[in-house]
């Protein structure tokens, strides 16, 4: 999630002087942390890469599907076969022909076990995807084929309600096998060892640097609508510096810190770009410390922690940026029931779970300590130190938990995001302050994470009841939208009850924006930033 957090902090700047049309159509963006990879098969976030990689569709305004590399598509009556017809004469940024076999190669490469893709689980439901990724079947058995140069056929094991939305995600974009073979281990280690299918191509990225650029891709099928000639990126991790540059009218859009939001919320240049991002606590259910492992696996102790956090105070006083109090693991505004028009977040709510009830919390904690035969415990919270929010949240949690739960000591271990993510993957934590942003507008984009053996289930929680509910939603009830919705509601309610993942707040992001930048498309899930139609007045 390091990349995802960094990409959510992107800010745009316009050229500070008048010049040619090309000069005017240059944007400058900043990121809080460096970009760590541009390999589609190995990436851990796709917030900006939809601008250089394109799949069958793109995300337009309000998450709507807009045309991509496919000119048309057909779906079988049983919902299990999709046929995509590519646009004629598609080309890669280097002039190579882009054909149907590039999609086949890309998907096979991602699911090859040695690739170790952390996003492989999103292929779940595509014929043989899980077996291929587990090394139990040949990549040639994967449910994707290219009967000719312009046709891609995808076979599913079951209907997938959100399949078309997935096909707008850069993860499913094509890759050029000739380029992969040509560069070998160098592939995707630098922007020059990559080719691009989207409206822009990348230059100047060397794998570790703090500067890179997107430039207009003149081989792109829809290049005539792309107004920007260049987007430059620079890592600037300080929001105060961003505002200073903005006030000099060199920035068109700058991300605000929590304190800055309080100062600028009445400014006419103030903008909010909401995103379906949940900050939560991960518990390590295989903790190496025997005592801590007993505590973490104790239901009463986890519930006590969840009931000890005053989320209203956290969002309003500590953060103060428009972040919201959650009702469960799935953010509000992500998905609505087609039948009764209710927000999923309102239906997942369970009393006495994600709430502030310190008296009940104290009682449950005392019970939990007795059950594990301990009078006190010390847990360590793994957090990050390179963003403006996590240190505040970590200190708030320490204050809340130690005040409301006598016998608990919460130590804080704050390290850089990349290191924290690595330790999380290795299971080197007691509790981890973490976050997740939706990949598409469906509850399962969050509810897949707690399933047994998913890549981002760092704490290795495993529960057959929960797994069965998600499996039912994805299989037996996949073609019945009403039953599927109820399966997911029950799963999220169960997650609230057991608190294997403890929601803290639903994030919001605020900016100052000048009036000379127009046409930015920002989505609440999936690829957040779409600059295909952006221009400077």
Automatic annotation (TrEMBL):
Q: Where in the cell is it found?
A: Cell envelope
Q: Which residues form the Solute-binding protein family domain?
A: 65-455
Which CDD domains does the UniProt entry name for this protein? Answer: PBP2_OppA
Keywords assigned by UniProt, alphabetized? Peptide transport, Protein transport, Signal, Transport
Checking Pfam families in the record gives: SBP_bac_5
Q: Which cellular component, as a GO term, is one annotated location? A: periplasmic space
Q: Which GO terms describe its biological process?
A: peptide transport
Report the InterPro entries cross-referenced here: Peptide/Ni-bd, SBP_5, SBP_5_dom
Domain of life, per lineage = Bacteria
One GO term in the molecular function aspect is: peptide transmembrane transporter activity
* UniProt-listed SUPFAM superfamilies: Periplasmic binding protein-like II
Q: Report the sequence similarity comment from the record.
A: Belongs to the bacterial solute-binding protein 5 family.
**Protein name per Swiss-Prot or TrEMBL:** ABC-type oligopeptide transport system, periplasmic component
The root-end lineage is: Bacteria, Bacillati, Bacillota, Bacilli, Lactobacillales
